[in-house]
Amino acid sequence: MSQASENTGQGTGAVADVRLPEAGRDRSPLTTGRRTTFLGTLFRNELLTTFRRWRTLALLAVLAAVPVLIGIAVKIETDGDPTRGPGGGDGGGGPAFISQITNNGLFLVFTALAATLPFFLPMAIGVIAGDAIAGEAGSGTLRYLLVAPAGRTRLLLTKYATVMAFCLVATLIVAVSALTVGAILFPLGDLTTISGTRISFADGLGRALLIALVVAASLIGVAALGLFISTLTSSGIAAMATTVGLLITIQILDQIPQLHTIQPYFFSHYWLSFADLMRDPVYWDDLQKNLGLQALYAAVFGSAAWARFTTKDITA
Question: What is the number of alpha carbons within 13 Å of residue 311 lying toward its C-beta?
């Protein structure tokens, strides 16, 4: 009897000793795996939802059409003569690099990015970022997203990552559209940098890709600003209009000479510094200032968006 009781006690103790650690060991990896899977699914679904909307497709179509219009206009004005520059042959009019398009179609990439960066690209980013949170709140789907185990911080990061993905896609669409049109309408080959040196077409293509990436990175400040505004209201239209309105206001203020003291702190002030990548050697000063300023705006308005969103009373 005592031996049976002793064996029973040992058995009970053994079961207790084994099961509790196993349960503890299994729970943490399972929870972590579920969270990782959920975050991947959330980001993927957010990307698909954003890029399937007719509004998004319309914005991308407009951006793709800008290089087409520029290329056709230059082709008609020069009448196919590479010795004639736009604007009466002096090459002094239009966006940067436009006088070189007839000599090399690759310059249409630089011209299209210079033409779309001041307004079209940031406007598109403002629309997507402004609608990120406010649009969900206005449609009544925000609180359902927060029921899932993502949490407000992860949801906000997912929204911002989606906006940044749109920045990259939109910029690449402009570049690819410009390169395609440039190859069809104008000759391609070695090109002359702003410094007057000759570089190969492959080198020029690599610089075009680098310029596109810099332009996309130049929009991270606008993305953070739009996301912050999106957390302040439950109306997607109001958030988009406010973001675009601020973009236009900043652009106007950046052109007033009397404000030269504060203009270097505007997020748009160094946007066109990407042209320095077409120098030989490359001038990095303004490029570094631009990227540093965008990082500062992203940190400030990203933190403000997080502080607002994590304390906001979600009723819709």
Answer: 7
pTM above 0.85, yes or no: no
The whole-number average pLDDT for the span 85-113 is 71
Measuring CA to CA, which residue among 119, 76, 79 is closest to residue 95? 119
The residues near 9 (Cβ < 8 Å, ≥ 6 apart) are none
Q: Distance between CA atoms of 158 and 295, rounded to whole angstroms?
A: 18
Tell me the three state secondary structure of residue 191: strand
Partners of residue 191 on adjacent β-strands: 199
CB atoms within 10 A of CB 193: 17
Q: CB-based contacts of 309: which residues, under 8 Å, 6+ apart? A: 133, 152, 156, 231
Q: For residue 264, what is the DSSP state?
A: G
State the alpha helices, DSSP H only, in 148-219: 151-185, 201-217
Strands, E, within the chain: which ranges?
191-192, 198-199
Does residue 109 contact residue 208 with C-beta atoms inside 8 Å?
yes
Banded pLDDT at 184 (limits 50, 70, 90): very high
Per DSSP bridges, beta strands 191-192 and 198-199 are antiparallel
What is the CB neighbour count within 10 angstroms for residue 17?
A: 10
3-class SS of residue 268? coil
274-294 mean pLDDT: 91
Q: Would you tell me the crossing angle of helices 285-311 and 201-217 to the nearest 10 degrees?
A: 30
Residues 230, 120 contacting (CB under 8 angstroms):
no
- What type of residue sits at position 135? G
Rounded (10°) CA dihedral 32, 34, 35, 40: 130
For residue 67, give Cα distances in angstroms to 75, 109, 201, 246.
12, 8, 20, 26
Q: Is the pLDDT of residue 19 over 70?
A: no
What is the overall mean pLDDT for the chain? Answer: 81
